[in-house]
Amino acid sequence: MDIPVTILESSDFEYVEHEEGLFVTGYKGNSNKVTIPETIDGKTVVGIAFEGYVDELIVPDSVKYVSEFEADYALQRIT
Asked: How far apart are CA 10 and CA 63, in angstroms?
């Protein structure tokens, strides 16, 4: 069964809503050092599920879930 998912956008990030909060699914910026926001549009970011070419990913304490395919070969550091 396919579940329709609507990708929402806010500044540099794409995300989907989940019952627990938001999952960041994409980064549209051009920085190699990306800071995932703790909230987007007033809702808490609880997960990261995207493939991106970044050197460093800074993750807030609110994130409970990180997809195993999120990290790529360019990623040097997650904090």
From this structure: 18
Gap between the Cα atoms of 45 and 59, Å rounded: 10
Q: CA–CA distance from 48 to each of 1, 27 (Å)? A: 23, 10
| 8-state DSSP, 5 | -
**Per residue of the chain (79 residues), what is the pLDDT tens digit?**
444 455 566 778 888 888 899 999 888 888 888 889 999 989 999 998 876 677 788 889 999 998 765 455 555 556 6
Residue 19 — left, alpha, or beta (φ > 0 → left; ψ -120 to 50 → alpha)? alpha
For the CA atoms of 10, 12, 14, 16, the dihedral, rounded to the nearest 10 degrees, stands at: -50
